[in-house]
Amino acid sequence: MINSISHWLSRHPYGITSIVFMIIVLFGWRMLGWGERQLGFLLLLYFIVALGIRLDDISRAIGGSGGNPRIVRGEPESLAAQLHEIRSLLRQIQTSLDKPSRRDDADER
Question: What stretches of the chain show up as alpha helix (H) in DSSP?
């Protein structure tokens, strides 16, 4: 039950955010008598929160996991694993370039 609720919440973050802000707007407008300024400020806060949610979606799509990036060497889709593989390949290339070939030795004589 809890897993299904958390799955639904993670799949619909904009809907949840919109519902929460709508409840705050209705409460502020009806009970607290908010005017244009307060509602405009709340709309600005809504856009900031929605932008934060979108940036979180983008960072998770790139490879982060919500501020806790995993470093797994065997996982090819992990950015850290790809960088580690590139580093090891560059070291192999560097060692092969450092060794003089026999043809170069014969040309020098």
Answer: 2-11, 13-30, 36-62, 79-98, 102-108
